[in-house]
Amino acid sequence: MRLFVLMILVVAGGRLHAAVTDGLVPLDRAEYRLEMHVIGGLGATWYTEPPSRYSNERIFTGYNGNARIMWHPDHLLGVGLMTGYQVFSLERFSPGPDNDLVQETKMQLGSIPIHAVFEMQGPYVRIGAGIGMYVLLSQLHEGDAITYSNSLAFGGSAWIGYAFTLSDRLRLGPDLVVQVISDRGIGNVSAMVTVQIDLLSY
Amino acid sequence: MNLRLLIIGVMMAVSGCVSELEQVLIPEVDRSMIVGTERIIDTTKRDILDGVYTTDESQTTVQRFGTVLSVRLNANGTLSIYAAQGIHTMLLEGGLRNDSAIYVGSWRSINSPATGSITVVIRPDEGGADVSRGKATSNLVLRCRVRTGNGSDQALVLRWQAKLTDDLRNFHIIAHRGGGRNSERLGVSENSLPMLRLAPYLGATGVEIDVEVTKDGIPIVFHDPSFTPRTVQGSYIMGSVASYTYQQIRQHVRLVNGEPIPTLQEALQTIIEETPLELVWLDVKQPSVTAAVLEACLAAQTTAQLRNRTVEILLGIPTAAILQAYRNANVDGKDRVGVLCELDPQTARSINARVWAPRFTDGIQRSEAEQMRQEGRRVFVWTLDDRAFMSNYLQERYRNGLLYTGVLTNYPTLLAAILYASKVTP
Lengths: 202, 426
Prior knowledge:
The complex is a heterodimer. By secondary structure, chain A is mostly beta strands. Chain A has 1 helix and 9 strands. Chain A is elongated. Chain B is α/β, with parallel strands linked by helices. Chain B has 13 helices and 19 strands. In chain B, helix 12 (387-399) links the parallel strand 18 and strand 19 (406-409). In chain B, helix 12 (387-399) packs across helix 13. Chain B is globular. Chains A and B meet through helix 1, strand 1, strand 4, strand 5 and strand 6 of A and helix 1, strand 12, strand 13 and helix 6 of B.
């Protein structure tokens, strides 16, 4: 199974890379840039097992708000850091005949990704990948009481995006982001809007 | 189209990376065969049936179970059979009917998914009549029919060879985390009440259980300091155990096989009232809960006395922090709680520990163990999972008398099989 998945990922990665690099136009080789990407959007999260014992739901919608600081040297490849906040799922449960709850309960799982990221970036199309930690954030609301807890998990992300140039220092476009936190059985696909701001060029 | 492929790819990647428990197969057992049988509870009859049995090399089951199997009737009349080869355990129910004995049940390997059903018959002329009359015999033959996972039947004939090793009462087979690696094969979670109920039938005479503490100071039986997919279901309740109250944990958390997390009090009560286990080793994980654990031990001792049960409950001292907490604990009667010290011999002496328990990687420590024995302390070793190491420690025990009198293991079935048959295969 794992070998099969690996093969699919390798083939998919190769095709994506080919598709993107075909459309890349080399940047001005003399330019070094520091960019900030502000990314926000909606996502679908998939759990391998239901996240609560009160429901069999495994697919949820949530939202993401992330930022990447990217340094692009004299090369197509940029490196940087990504962080932000995202909500994977939120469920509300009421006491009823099919559960043993005694009060209104809300459960939420979010995360703060802290990733080292790499990105191939042309004037329009970008592909990137990140790897690092997720600070998983759990909220348990029982009536008026809220219990917070957190945990660390390893994970990875990958994205493909397109940028429309708005001005010399500003670009805007859609991103499709995929995230996997494998040891927790969590996958996420998000449709995002990315604003790229050139902070510094030299 | 591409988006759909991407989502499928992500799902497969997630599924491919998560370590899932193997499916636990439950073999079908035909209980109609044991209708009308009478369980063997009488200890005289039980002693007759208990023993080391051998099989003929030519039998097709030899590759699976080996040639030496140990048979032991449990206090509740169920029959356990242990085989060191492949680490097999069998649990059967049934009893005497007329002059025959009939048992049905299942067999299972502890280190593979292999499982199936088994039927055991003792004919009147092959010891059945003697057992039913309580008359000792060495002419016992157990005729077994072993059904494998693919539905094929194989014959297994077990012939009584010798009594089980004599000094079972002086030696403890202690199942790690309530049952050891059996939790992966039997569909019950480590440190759960069902695991504790099952442990004796896997060969354990004692259990080691782990004690964590909730936000409101309740000692619970749980190994890790945090909730992770290794131990619990779901994704919302995660992170530090100490973030949640006992009520929240009871309400929202289930162990990987669906059981609630028991309190220490519930676990001790279950051991006392529902099992024949003779020893409990409490592995305290947080110093802050030490006093509460001592109080739970004292309460459990009272319960055991009321139930006329002999269960030794030992407070484990695994770290300097727990040692300090034990010394500082201001609990009336704490000297009545036996202590098992995992630290050095001097520390064990300083707290008058009943048991000194070094880890096996320190090697067989003859002089220290002998000194402990002379001081009236027992010596246990942890955690032995390898057959060769188990045999080494057992042989050391025979060479030097009762030097090591307890072994903590993830494979109580393997240790039981080796120990019980040590007269035949020393």
